[in-house]
């Protein structure tokens, strides 16, 4: 019964137009990138599926009104860095098909990191600018180590 409820919740989520717009845009970007020799298939799959997250944030902000919601509990820096390293390793593994896909993955990671840093420091004030830079450095290091290591394996 829980799995049926989960499927119904996912279908209900797709009824929100903001999520659909973001998913359509990310799928369109993935299709365009698939026509180049730069993108690897795992990268395209992750890009197409990850497009729903900005739509979820957009929808949640629209439903909650313009007032930002503050988190009642803070995440420790160790947990933040562990999650960042896992993200960097995951994206590095998805980008390791060829050198051009490693470069494309680094560009996408840099753009996503800049957007996250702005959102986390200026819009939401989740972390300080120094803590955001530390976290982004650990993500970039994990990405680089994983992507380059898998090039030689």
Word description of this protein:
Helix content is 78%, strand content 0%. The protein has 153 residues and is mainly α. It is globular and about 45 Å long. The chain has one domain. Helix 2 (17-34) packs antiparallel against helix 4 (52-64) and helix 6 runs antiparallel to helix 7 (129-151).
Q: Regions with pLDDT < 50 over 5+ consecutive residues?
A: none
The proportion of strand residues reads under 5%
Q: Roughly how many Å apart are the termini?
A: 44 Å
Major β-sheet profile? none
Which structural class is indicated by helix and strand composition? Answer: mainly alpha
Helix count, DSSP H or I runs of 4 or more residues = 7
- Binned, the helix content reads over 70%
Net shape: globular
Number of strands: 0
What would you say about this model in short?
By secondary structure, the protein is mostly helical. It has helices at 2-13, 17-34, 41-50, 52-64, 77-94, 99-123, 129-151.
Give the SSE map.
Elements: H1 2-13, H2 17-34, H3 41-50, H4 52-64, H5 77-94, H6 99-123, H7 129-151
Helix pairs in contact: 2-3, 2-4, 5-7, 6-7
For this entry, give a set of tags.
globular; 7 helices; 0% strand
């Amino acid at each position: 019964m829980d799995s049926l409820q989960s499927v119904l919740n996912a279908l209900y989520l797709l009824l929100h137009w903001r999520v659909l717009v973001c998913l359509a845009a990310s799928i369109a970007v993935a299709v365009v990138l698939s026509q180049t020799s730069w993108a690897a298939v795992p990268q395209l799959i992750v890009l197409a599926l990850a497009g729903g997250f900005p739509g979820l944030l957009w929808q949640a902000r629209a439903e909650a009104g313009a007032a930002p919601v503050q988190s009642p509990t803070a995440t420790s820096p160790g947990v933040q860095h562990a999650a960042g390293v896992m993200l960097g390793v995951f994206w590095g593994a998805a980008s390791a098909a060829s050198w051009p896909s490693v470069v494309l993955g680094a560009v996408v990671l840099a753009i996503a990191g800049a957007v996250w840093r702005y959102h986390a420091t200026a819009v939401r004030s989740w972390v300080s600018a120094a803590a955001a830079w530390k976290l982004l450095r650990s993500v970039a290091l994990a990405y680089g180590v994983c992507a380059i290591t898998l090039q030689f394996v």
